[in-house]
User: Which sequence fits this backbone?
């Protein structure tokens, strides 16, 4: 279907962009929904899910405490 979602936290990834976080959210929504591209009637729900998961992922990455990782 799509490429795998990669780990976005240190030490696996040091320079994570907003685009990386959104791409991971998109891959997650695609996997869970089973749609690579949703029908027009599902587009709003699909887009909202991507937005909400992007935000939640950003918050998660900002608050994780990883042993030995530099503070952001």
Assistant:
């Amino acid at each position: 279907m799509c490429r795998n979602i990669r780990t976005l936290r240190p030490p696996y990834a040091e320079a994570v962009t907003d685009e990386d976080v959104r791409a991971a959210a998109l891959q997650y929504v695609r996997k869970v929904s089973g749609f690579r591209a949703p029908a027009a009637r599902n587009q709003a729900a699909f887009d909202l899910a991507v937005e909400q998961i992007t935000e939640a992922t950003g918050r998660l990455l900002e608050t994780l405490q990883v042993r030995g990782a530099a503070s952001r």
Observations:
- The mean pLDDT is 89.
- The two ends are 34 Å apart (CA to CA).
- The longest helix spans residues 43-63.
